[in-house]
Write a structure and sequence with these properties.
The complex is a heterodimer. Chain A is of the alpha/beta class. The longest helix of chain A has 18 residues. The mean pLDDT of chain A is 93. In chain A, helix 12 crosses helix 16. Chain A has three domains: 53 residues, Electron transport complex subunit B, putative Fe-S cluster (3-methyladenine DNA Glycosylase II, Chain A, domain 3, Orthogonal Bundle), CATH 1.10.15; 246 residues, Dihydropteroate synthase-like (TIM Barrel, Alpha-Beta Barrel); 123 residues, Rossmann fold (3-Layer(aba) Sandwich). In chain A, 39% of the residues lie in helices and 17% in strands. The mean pLDDT of chain B is 95. Chain B has an eight-stranded parallel β-sheet. In chain B, 40% of the residues lie in helices and 14% in strands. Chain B starts with 15 loop residues before the first strand and ends with a helix. Chain B is an alpha/beta fold. Chain B has one domain: TIM Barrel (Alpha-Beta Barrel). Classes of the chains: A alpha/beta, B alpha/beta. The interface between A and B is large, with 65 and 61 residues. Bound molecules: iron/sulfur cluster. Iron/sulfur cluster binds next to helix 2 of chain A.
């Protein structure tokens, strides 16, 4: 919570010299509280006051960066409890465990498996981006070797050891760029803080909630600001509640000791169950989720859900109803028709793109509803489609007047042919997934 | 240091709806399900109660639909053409707490079944099962209004849940539910204002909150689920804030959406990087359901028994069991 005008007033010189342009220090304090003035406008403010006021204006959940350069991951700095209130800004990082007890071949194989967890979705490449290198062996040399292999993969690295000496060696010598150090605990806080300080790496504070506050305070006192929290819950119901509490305290109370992103762990060894746990953890505020699973079928839905939950809800649910061109269209390109529900449109567009057959898509205004809903509600009818086709101007741009309609509304064919003289109506696939094969195999013969 | 615990107390509770009637209650069911009653956000059990955990109903279809995903074909085989056998398997083999019968065959594109055809399917399914029944029409205005009153009458006394009433077509179904003692599903197209409007319209017909369930229209993971997720969250927050016209339990038709997703169906040979289709399809449905649970689903209508089992496990975990 931001400081009140009175809180700020207490920190000002109280001389009412008016150099800030306000008649009194109190007036200036009120303006500051309303963000209608800048602290720099008062030339007499003390350094101490500057620091106090600067800290008060910091975001309630700190932004923490893992890694460097293009692949870096930014987590935290969230501003809401529910995505409809604004949006969730920094997508949850996904990490897969890598034990340093694995022998060289197994280690390399697991790293390759994680690297393969990369998918294309609506023109974007999405992936599991981190390895959680765990010092199961208890041996600093093995830990360093595993960390080196992880760093060489191009994935981001979380180094997991509670031994500051092993951690320091791995952080300095593995070649990992700004890895996340897991973890400082009440038992090793001094040692781990020294490593974090010396290497400039972010560090996880790991302790039960009541001890976590003292731990982050100790890390702060040691000059460490980039902190991620592990409140040490592993049961899903407890994680959900703890993560909700931490987010509420940060946002509603500006409770600084817990104003950091949270790392969470799935507990199940069954990949499907772990993926479901991760989906819940992600929805309810985990900034990093650690999984054992490397199965692509388990990671694909999870990564897709991450894209969904971090989509800006302010983004319109409708696309503009007009004529769209996909690829280098020519007078021989197919013409498809669909609705202006953005999801429907982008699904169709994605499949047309995948087909590599340049096409026109006529988008009918159905008030942002999908094909079948719009059809049932009589918003996707022969008349509305015919009108959209005529107004789109596509008629003058193609030689073959063939209109491909979604298979789900095949019944409209007859009426459409009456409504659009000169056009032949072709019934396309029921689902967008069938479009590439339709455009490649059926369309040419039409 | 002791940390403050921030608990949000609800000003209102979700209404409770009971589906199914035993012999003593004038029906023939051996079990009934009750949903709703929450006084907190989903699974926020330290600040309120969820007296009735979410229910999983399994969806069956009359004989009309033929293009089932391979994974659904593999599990149910010939039963996909035999609604009573299918329903029985869902209940006895897979532990469905309720059956949802989708009368797609009444759709003019899918066989245009008559009211009599639909009634006989409803009767067959009722006699093959002992759990409560949800009946959903084809979603085509005229056909819904033709078949649903007949189905409603045929199931009189069973306290079914019938769907779906929409903003433009609610009177016939609401009148049937009122006359025959059923509850009703009010459907809205991912729009919180319309959802409320439908509830108001149905209420004005005389159905009490304890007999209305909302269908906000959901998408699958990767297919618009975030819209439904936020609409459901907003609706639940409004209800807990005291808005009685949003305080109806929510039903989500998960299976129908999840199994349409390309990612749930495409064979590994076409998408080698995605892994085996079987696990993928099951998880697609289970994850869609899980996410909707967090948003406030009270009834999940699902298709694949393995997905049902996984979601049941997650519900247990979320309840701390
Ligand atoms: S410039 Fe500073 S000291 Fe002077 S009146 Fe403004 S706030 Fe007060």
């Amino acid at each position: 919570m931001a400081l009140s005008g009175l809180d700020i007033y207490k920190l000002l010189p109280k001389t009412n010299c008016k150099e800030c342009g306000k008649p009194t220090c109190l007036a200036f304090a009120m303006a500051l509280a309303q963000k209608k003035a800048e602290l720099s406008q008062c030339p007499h403010v003390s350094d101490q006051a500057k620091e106090a006021l600067g800290a008060a204006s910091a975001p309630p959940i700190r932004l923490v960066t893992i890694g460097e350069g293009e692949n870096k991951l930014e987590i935290g700095n969230e501003t809401v409890l529910f995505r409809h209130e604004a949006t969730f800004f920094h997508p949850t990082g996904l990490a897969v465990t890598l034990s340093d007890s694995l022998d060289g071949t197994a280690l390399a194989r697991r790293i390759e498996a994680v690297k393969a967890l990369r998918f294309d979705r609506v023109g974007r490449s999405v992936r599991v981006e981190m390895l959680f290198v765990r010092n199961d062996s208890g041996d600093a040399g093995k830990f360093l070797a595993a960390a080196k292999a992880a760093a060489g993969s191009g994935l981001l690295v979380i180094l997991a050891s509670e031994d500051p000496a092993a951690m320091e060696k791995a952080a300095r010598e593995s070649g990992a760029k700004k890895p996340l150090l897991y973890a400082a605990t009440p038992a090793n806080a001094n040692g781990m803080a020294a490593v974090a300080k010396a290497t400039g790496c972010p560090v996880v504070a790991k302790a039960p909630p009541d001890k976590l506050v003292d731990l982050t305070a100790a890390l702060n006192a040691a000059g460490i600001k980039d902190i991620v929290l592990d409140p040490e819950f592993r049961r899903l119901d407890e994680c959900l509640w703890a993560q909700t509490q931490i987010r509420r305290l940060a946002l509603r109370r500006t409770f600084r000791p817990l104003g950091y992103p949270v790392i969470a762990f799935t507990s199940s060894t069954d990949p499907a169950r772990a993926a479901l746990q991760a989906a819940v953890l992600m929805a309810k505020y985990a900034a990093i989720v650690v999984l054992e699973a490397v199965e692509p079928w388990a990671c694909l839905p999870l990564i897709t859900w991450r894209l969904n939950v971090y989509t800006d809800p302010q983004k319109p649910i409708q696309v503009e109803p007009k004529l769209y061109e996909v690829g280098a269209v020519s007078p021989d390109s197919p013409v498809l028709v669909t609705t202006n529900f953005s999801l429907t449109y982008f699904t169709v567009e994605g499949e047309v793109e995948a087909s590599r057959v340049p096409s026109y898509i006529v988008v009918v205004n159905t008030d942002g509803t999908s094909v079948l809903t719009a059809w049932a509600a009589e918003k996707f009818t022969a008349d509305s489609i015919a009108k959209a086709v005529r107004e789109s101007g596509v008629e003058s741009r193609v030689r073959k007047k063939r209109l491909v309609i979604p298979g789900g509304v095949a019944v409209l064919s007859g009426k459409l042919e009456e409504a659009l003289p000169g056009w032949k109506i072709c019934v396309g696939p029921r689902e967008a997934v069938g479009i590439p094969s339709y455009l490649k195999n059926v369309w040419p013969s039409l | 240091m002791a940390i403050e615990v921030l608990t949000d107390k609800a000003a209102g509770a979700i209404a409770t709806v009971t589906i199914g009637a035993t012999k003593a209650e004038g029906g023939t069911r051996e079990s009934v399900v009750t949903v709703g009653g929450e006084t907190c956000l989903p699974f926020h059990l330290k600040e309120g109660v969820m007296p009735h955990p979410p229910v999983i109903a399994m969806e069956i279809c009359d004989r009309a639909k033929t293009d089932w995903p391979p994974e659904i074909e593999r599990v149910f085989g010939a039963r996909l053409k035999d609604p009573p056998a299918w329903a029985e398997a869902c209940e006895k083999q897979y532990g469905a707490q309720a059956i949802c019968l989708r009368l797609l065959g009444a759709h003019s594109d899918y066989g245009n079944n008559s009211a009599d055809d639909c009634v006989s399917t409803v009767r067959e399914v009722l006699s093959a099962t002992t759990v409560p029944l949800i009946i959903v029409g084809p979603g085509q205005k005229d056909k819904d209004n033709e078949i649903m009153p007949a189905c409603s009458q045929a199931a009189k006394g069973e306290k079914c849940l019938l769907g779906s009433a929409t903003q433009d077509n609610y009177k016939t179904l609401a009148a049937s539910c009122l006359a025959d003692g059923h509850s009703i599903i009010g459907e809205s197209p991912i729009d919180i204002n319309i959802a409320k409007q439908v509830n108001i319209l149905i209420s004005e017909m005389g159905l009490p909150p304890g007999r209305i369930v909302m269908d906000p229209t959901v998408g699958a993971v990767g297919y618009g689920i975030e819209y439904a997720y936020s609409i459901m969250e907003r609706g639940r927050l409004a209800a807990l804030g005291g808005d009685k016209m949003m305080a109806m339990p929510v039903i989500c038709f998960v299976g129908k959406e999840a199994w349409r997703a390309k990612e749930a169906k495409v064979d590994q040979s076409e998408a080698p990087a995605w892994g085996p289709a079987m696990e993928r399809g099951i998880l697609w449905e289970a994850m869609t359901a899980t996410v909707l649970l967090i948003a406030g689903a009270d009834i999940l209508v699902m298709r694949h028994p393995d997905a049902v089992e996984k979601v049941r496990g997650v519900i247990g975990e979320l309840l701390g069991k």
